[in-house]
Amino acid sequence: xxxxxxxxxxxxxxxxxLFRSYARSATGAGTLGAWQxxxxxxxxxxxxxxxxxxxxRVLSGRVQVEIGDERAELLPGDAVTIPAGSRFRVSNETExxxxxxxxxxxxxxxxxxGTTNTVKPPWAQ
Length: 125
Fold this sequence. Notes:
The chain has one domain (about 5-125): Jelly Rolls (Sandwich), CATH 2.60.120.10. The chain has strands at about 10-15, 15-25, 30-40, 50, 55-60, 65, 70-75, 80, 85-90, 100-105, 110, 120. By secondary structure, the chain is mainly beta. The radius of gyration is 14 Å and the shape is globular.
């Protein structure tokens, strides 16, 4: 059984957001990566382009999501699918923290808008 308890999830912080990795190659996952992201209040998102499809579900709080030219506020229970190759940004423009659960295929990469650097986040490898 591939079990990851909260206290065993490896943590990474990028652009002020805390990522807690529950499923990735290092935990024995074969094809999917899954993690929880914690967005502090008033955290601006960083526009980036995803290499693969991503599913993003809000667990608590509210976040503002942009995919291409579309924008929506997501509430707890809401989920959005981000198509591969799309421009994506998630922000927490509120005074309350927010958390989300995210799933992608392992090996996901992204490119921060305005750069040519491909980022391989360790929580998704």
